[in-house]
Amino acid sequence: MAPGSSTINRKRVVALKKYLLKGNEAIAEAAIKAGCRLFFGYPITPSTEIIEYMAKHLPAVDGSFVQAESEVSAINMCYGAAGAGVRVMTASSSPGMSLMQEGLSYIAANELPVVLVNIVRAGPGLGGLGPSQADYFQATKGGGHGDYRLIVLAPNSVQELVDLTRDAFDLADMHRNPVLLIADGILGQMMEPVVFKELEAPSLPDKTWATTGAEGRPRNIITSYALQNEIGEANCLRWEAKYKNIAATEQRWEQYMIDDADYVVVAYGTTARIAKAAVQQARQEGIKVGLLRPVTLWPFPVKAFAALGGKVKGYLTVELSAGQMIEDVRLAINCAVPVHLCNRQGGMVPSPEEVLARFKEVFPNSVEGGV
Amino acid sequence: MTEKIVISGFGGQGVMFMGKILAYAGMLADKEVSWIPSYGPEMRGGTANCSVTVSNQEINCPVVTKPSIVVAMNTPSQEKFLSTLIPGGLLVVNSSIVKEEANRTDVKVLRIPAQELAADKVGKASLANVVILGAMLAKMDLLSIQDVVLAIKEVVAAKRPEMLAINQQALEVGMSYVKENNL
Amino acid sequence: MKEVFTRSKALTEAPFHYCPGCTHGIIHRLVAEKIEEMDLLGKAIGVTPVGCAGFCQQYFNIDMQGAAHGRAPAVATGIKRALPDKFVFTYQGDGDLASIGIAEIMHAAARGENITAIFVNNAIYGMTGGQMAPTTLPGQKTSTSPFGREASLAGFPLDMPRIMAQIEGAAYVASVSVDSPKNVIQAKRAIGQAFECQLAGRGFSFVSILSTCPTNWGLSPVKSLEWLREKMMQQFALGILKDVSAK
């Protein structure tokens, strides 16, 4: 991982055998390896391989799997299990994530470490099964009620699905906050070689707050009910301070050919790979363009944009949506230079050539001898 | 060197399996690989396809829009993907089913009567997909038949060792057909 | 002097906030006494609902989690799967359990989830000020059935214990009341049997308890008890409806 920072710092010890795995299977295996012993979910394409993998493999590690009656129920099972102090995960795709938003608000309010996976498909409504990034707002701005934040991780390869799933559990425990791994349907469905790195476990706080039966200690209560406004405000201030700390310490991104770049393409997930191919083609044509790939969508890597200073003449975001991340890019640079959008929607994906064509269209001056 | 391969056919013709074997073979040969299926309702009947990229370099864009190789196991697949093939690319056609000639002259076309070859020379018609793989390997520099045999050994023969020899035979039948007919 | 009554160790010292004549207090005490008597103080984890009993984590002197409206059986499932050796129960009202949370309660039972649900039925939404519940009786006036519950518009009450008894995964189902000393004793016995059912690992246990809401019914505490006996018991008959250990 290139620039950015994280409170999870790891030393790589040894690389193991390569496996050819589907993204969804890789997430599930990485979760089990991270100590996840409980999974509650409801089948939905294109995330279903995760729930199937968990159903098959959790019993062998003395874990427990429940196919819930709905996503509403699944997320609340996660709430109970996380409150009991055990590593727990659920996974779904867009319509199912919508159903989980209520429970997610409660999980955030009670500061419970739950790991969620959204293998995003095209919406709104029932939509299609094709890849999409249209759940960006829901993921980063809070889809449920109230003022809360999820830590949102956006991998762009099957290997990174593995690495970030592991990190998701540690980040959740570290900050006592739900963590969402978000990936478009292609990443969930594609196979790539992966290795499961043997990594040192970071030092994490004890879960002294968990409801495990009040044997030999004062009782623990997990509730977000605060009818006294003074208590409500004190809670909000505590959460706000936590979110500020996460925003300061957990921004991650990757950058490519950015040092001398006049223009920067911004993309995450699968579109970041497509954009990278477009940047390479542009470079061959002598265009000074680089790529900035947010790895954390929340906290958004504003530090990466600050570091670029005033030398960038324009940005192009590449998104599988009507343009959602573009708003965070504009905020990150205070609208100082033009930010344009290259997008496809409804399950369609742009080609590198399309991205490059759009780039030249919006930045004609970028081309040598351009007007 | 990068090969971008689209394999397409009816559900049940083993196109996903062919893609997986190729990707696995690439991984064992220390190449960069990726495999993307068509997923969702297309899986249940109708035409299914998958894209495989095998490369000596990092694979930036795993989505294949302009393949260098198209394997068409049925007529709709040839119709759908022939136009996406890059000039100089390779079209491998299951001519047991696809009777229409390819209407491009700027690509290399291998027409393989895979089902007849699988039935007559391998004794197992269901291995038509492996015969096609063998034919494709005859024209593909990035992977050898040995790489694919290793992959079949790990993916298939780990649980069904009796399948290894017959799969290897099917690969060789496909490859020999290309060579013997100077395709 | 001989001490004949004392606060259960499973209750805190916080005074109940419930309205005069409301029977939540009695039911809390019965649950707490059984927790103490069955030596579950350090082992019990309770899940609270949304509704009048949404504050009961203040009163039960054990580990508690507060669930979203209707979701307590799902939360309890998560806790029990995480900690199968602990004792896990939900405490839910009729709006919570029989309306917004009916999927969660029925599927917890269908799975035979080894938890206990305490269902407090007072035929009305208390917390929000007296609206129609899924258990509101035909003709009963509430703020959202101001002319009386009319079947052609608002359907019929759900008899939850009878529904639950149909589910194969439910091992113990009782319908009790706390309107009289005799029924209070019977209710406590049923709670104890439900708890035993869980401790023996027999599966899902369910105790429905008819309760009063003098404030929203617009009746005195005494009249409320009479109304419960005359009206509610006709609709929701009492009895042990299912006990797999008795077979």
Describe the structure.
The complex is a heterotrimer of chains A (371), B (183) and C (247). By secondary structure, chain A is of the alpha/beta class. Chain A has twelve helices and 17 strands. The longest helix of chain A has 21 residues, at 229-249. Chain A starts with 11 loop residues before the first strand and ends in a 9-residue tail after the last helix. The relative contact order of chain A is 0.14. The model of chain A has no long low-confidence stretch (mean pLDDT 95). With 183 residues, chain B is an alpha/beta fold. Chain B has a single domain, classed as Pyruvate-ferredoxin Oxidoreductase, domain 3 (3-Layer(aba) Sandwich). Chain C has 247 residues and is an alpha/beta fold. Chain C is built from nine helices and seven strands. A seven-stranded mixed beta sheet of chain C has the order 2-1-3-4-6-5-7, with helices on both faces. The longest helix of chain C has 19 residues, at 181-199. Classes of the chains: A alpha/beta (371), B alpha/beta (183), C alpha/beta (247). Chains A and C meet through helix 3, helix 4 and strand 11 of A and strand 1, strand 2, helix 2 and helix 4 of C.
In short:
Chain A is α/β, with parallel strands linked by helices and 371 residues long.
Present the secondary structure layout.
The complex is a heterotrimer of chains A (371), B (183) and C (247).
Chain A lengths: L11 E3 L4 E4 H11 L4 E4 L6 H10 L6 E4 L3 H13 L4 E5 L1 H16 L4 E7 L15 H6 L9 E3 L4 H18 L3 E6 H5 L1 E4 L3 E2 L21 E2 L6 H21 L3 E4 L6 E4 L3 H15 L4 E6 L1 E3 L3 H7 L5 E6 L5 H8 L6 E5 L8 H11 L9
Helix pairs in contact in A: 1-2, 1-6, 3-4, 9-12
Chain B lengths: L1 E9 L4 H14 L3 E6 L9 E9 L13 E4 L2 H7 L8 E5 L13 E5 L1 H9 L5 H10 L7 H11 L7 H18 L3
Parallel strand pairs in B: 1-4, 4-5, 5-6
Antiparallel strand pairs in B: 1-3, 2-3
Helix pairs in contact in B: 1-5, 3-4, 3-6, 4-6, 5-6
Chain C lengths: L23 H14 L6 E5 L14 E4 L5 H11 L4 E7 H7 L1 H9 L5 E6 L29 H4 L5 H6 L4 E8 L3 H19 L4 E7 L3 H4 L3 H15 L3 E5 L4
Helix pairs in contact in C: 1-7, 3-4
